[in-house]
Amino acid sequence: PPEIRFEDVRFTYDGVPEAALHGVSFTAPAGRTTAIVGPSGAGKSTLLALLLRHHDPGEGRITADGRDTTQYSLGALRRGIAVVSQETYLFHATVADNLRLARPDATDDEVTAAARTAGIHDEITALPEGYATVLGERGATLSGGQRQRLALARALLTDARVLVLDEATSSVDERREADIVRELTNAANDRTVLVIAHRLAAVQHADHIVVLDAGRVEAVGEHSGLA
Ligand code: ADP
Ligand code: ADP
Fold this sequence. Notes:
single chain; 227 residues; alpha/beta; 4-stranded antiparallel sheet; 31% helix; binds adenosine-5'-diphosphate
């Protein structure tokens, strides 16, 4: 998996006097979990949008595997970075079909393994195929947590070697969020994981934490040194 590195990244939105990012630098080591934590307005979404090149680049450099992200095609860059967020789009189809659509050439064993790792396996096997629809019109409705796990299973089925959890679990209490983040990062083995969250307690199991505030890196370290 790639190392992701931000080098003195600055970004200002058009028509806004104050910069959203004032020279952000950090390294997300290959194959490890790095948390980006900060309050609302800290610049977390801006940072992710720049990584995915949803905005034109500002100043500074963002690299993946030592290569500037602007040197990748947009398709290759975005295929390489799977994002699980609260608004992850699920297809109006069965759980099994949602998994297969993530990678049509995946074998049944691969689909099963991803579902098991993400903790959504019971929902594909316990119910007749075609029964558990994502939107729950017929049969079982998926809970919020189950939808999240389905989104994670889909991300795990793709070839993406970078997994971003974008405030995916911020609606649950922080203790539970910490447990979920730990489960998710365990499931993501052999990927570089970025966890975006607004509470430090939620990411206590991350290998490495970057604290962002008002567009600046305030601190970097392990949870024990920051709390
Ligand atoms: P976070 O994700 O940590 O809440 P954001 O990256 O959304 O932070 O915001 C960082 C700063 O950029 C804030 O001051 C915010 O108001 C501003 N901002 C975010 N998105 C836009 C936008 N589309 N246009 C103008 N300003 C924005
Ligand atoms: P919700 O209350 O959001 O509907 P569930 O009822 O599906 O969530 O949660 C059941 C269990 O799954 C809980 O023990 C919870 O900690 C865990 N869980 C919830 N969301 C996730 C997730 N995204 N990944 C892994 N486990 C989760």
